[in-house]
Design brief:
Helix content of chain B: 10-25%
Helix content of chain A: 55-70%
Structural class of chain B: alpha/beta
Shape of chain A: elongated
Number of helices of chain A: 11
CATH class of the largest domain in chain A: Mainly Alpha
Number of helices of chain B: 6
Radius of gyration of chain B: 17 Å
CATH topology of the largest domain in chain A: Four Helix Bundle (Hemerythrin (Met), subunit A)
Number of strands of chain B: 7
Radius of gyration of chain A: 22 Å
Distance between the termini of chain A: 37 Å
Order of helices and strands of chain A: HHHHHHHHHHH
Number of domains of chain B: 1
Oligomer: heterodimer
Distance between the termini of chain B: 28 Å
Order of helices and strands of chain B: EEHHEHHEEEEHH
Largest sheet of chain B: 7 strands, mixed
Chain lengths: ~250, ~220
């Protein structure tokens, strides 16, 4: 019997919405719901009871999973209520759709063993959607320049003020001001863009690696560096560099 | 009408493959319910048109893709990366055998498609998909001699600590068992061994020489 790793279906995220972002910028209810949902998809949905009687064990498994499903359902409904568009939100609709799939898979699995893997698959799909909602919210929060600057400082912890100034396109004096809590009133678009880029690559490299990423010539940029592209025009650079950063998610045959 | 003269062989079987991903993401690419598929364009798919699972038959092949994509040219930079390298046991069918430049040529396809820019390979992928193929083998552009397996469409992983071979896959069309090999950075040897996009591909050029064809100017 193969040993199962702790399952985190479809979601290997190590970020949290508050990661490096000012506390007041986060809708706490939404964050809590998403984290709770992700936790549901990490934990096993049915654990074996002591093997007294096969039928009893199966019944216990089914009951346990039914309880688990009820908690998932409550959480999804709560989440839909806390999002601005509510049940009209595209991803929330998808979450409900996959929850229905999960319900059907559970209902047709009378022994709680999930032999066809349908319960697990539906969980992974729901985890994909929950993860996507979490990311979307994080990106929305990072449109706030203060949150963006804090996020950049957290991601580039230990990086010198000179490098931070180069990447953010402001003076070292401005970096000191921002770090001291001063208003982020200049270089806003660039700071937001850098923060958005970092969300895609920070899990894959050290702070030094992140700095090097901005300084390394890339084939995808016709031999220019991301920093050069940023220096030329922030608004044009944004979609190009975000696409480049998103490519870091997983192997693409080169 | 497909661009090939002879249809690529359709393979069925089980293959051990490798794939490296960012530590925060799942081993395979899936984005259930996405309005527009989010996967960034790669050799065998275009962004927004679906998903592809890019794998290599050799671990060094998987790492070389990372080195090439990020254009890692020095040890210090390589050491800053953290990636998860996964081993996957792929049980598949209808896989196009374009695993060598000879096979491309034998089908009447330009072998350059395997290692050149993406426009030709993405078009070929479309044709393969339309002809019912579920993926293809192709020579690696990043590491001479390595072979990649790419599957069309989303797949979901079954993470196992051990025993990939023993797991009874309830749905091979959608599920792939995988196991973590290592969490680390690309091996130093690849910094010099990888073929970057702005370099000639020695494997492709060696094949051209072997069959007596002229070497094109520029890359690959």
């Amino acid at each position: 019997m193969p040993a199962e790793a702790p399952i985190r279906p479809g979601n290997h995220s190590s970020f949290t919405l508050r990661d490096g972002i000012a506390q007041e910028a986060i809708p706490g209810d939404v964050e809590a719901r998403i984290e709770q949902l992700e936790e549901f998809f990490r934990e096993p949905d049915a654990q074996s009871a002591p093997p007294i009687d096969e039928a009893e064990v199966a019944a216990a498994r089914v009951e346990q999973r039914t309880d688990w499903y009820d908690r998932v359902e409550t959480c999804v409904v709560d989440l839909s209520r806390t999002l601005p568009a509510g049940a009209e939100d595209y991803d929330v609709r998808k979450l409900f759709e996959f929850m229905l799939e999960l319900r059907k898979a559970i209902d047709s699995d009378h022994e709680g063993r999930d032999p066809a893997g349908e319960v697990e698959l539906a969980k992974m799909k729901m985890a994909d959607v929950a993860h996507r909602i979490g990311r979307r919210l994080m990106h929305e929060q990072l449109d706030n320049p203060r949150a963006a600057a804090d996020y950049v400082f957290a991601a580039l912890q230990g990086v010198g003020v000179g490098d931070l100034a180069r990447i953010l396109g402001v003076s070292t004096k401005t970096i000191y001001t921002w770090k001291a809590g001063g208003p982020v009133a200049r270089g806003i678009r660039r700071t937001v863009t850098v923060a958005q880029i970092l969300t895609y690559i920070r899990a894959s490299m050290t702070p030094l690696g992140l700095v090097m990423w901005f300084d390394a010539p890339r084939d995808q940029l016709a031999e220019r560096t991301p920093l050069q592209v940023l220096d030329e025009n922030v608004d044009r650079a944004r979609p190009i560099l975000i696409e480049l950063a998103r490519g870091a998610r997983g192997q693409l045959a080169g | 009408m497909a661009s090939w003269r002879a249809e690529p062989a359709r393979l069925s079987g089980e293959w051990s493959c490798f794939r490296q991903v960012s530590p925060e993401w799942a081993p395979l690419y899936h984005g259930a319910g996405e309005l527009h598929p989010s996967q960034v364009s790669g050799r065998w798919h275009r962004v927004g048109e679906g998903y592809a699972q890019y794998m290599a038959l050799e671990p060094m092949g998987a790492w070389a893709e990372q080195v090439r994509f990020e254009r890692i040219r020095g040890e210090t930079r390589a050491a800053q990366y953290t990636r998860k390298l996964w081993r996957m046991l792929v049980r598949e069918r209808e896989i196009a055998d374009l695993s060598t430049f000879d096979r491309y040529d034998g089908c009447g396809l330009d072998p350059r498609t395997a290692v050149g820019d993406y426009a030709a390979s993405q078009s070929l992928a479309e044709e393969l998909l339309a002809a019912g193929y579920r993926g293809l083998f192709s020579p690696s552009a990043a590491l001479v001699g390595a072979t990649n397996l790419t599957l069309f469409g989303p797949r979901f992983e079954k993470e196992l600590l051990v025993g990939l071979d023993a797991w009874r896959n309830p749905d091979p069309d959608q599920r792939i068992p995988c196991s973590l090999v290592v969490e680390g950075n690309p091996p130093r040897a690849l910094i010099t061994a990888t073929t970057f996009a702005n370099m000639e591909h020695d494997g492709y050029r060696g094949w051209l020489r072997a069959v007596g064809r002229p070497l094109p100017p520029g890359v690959p």
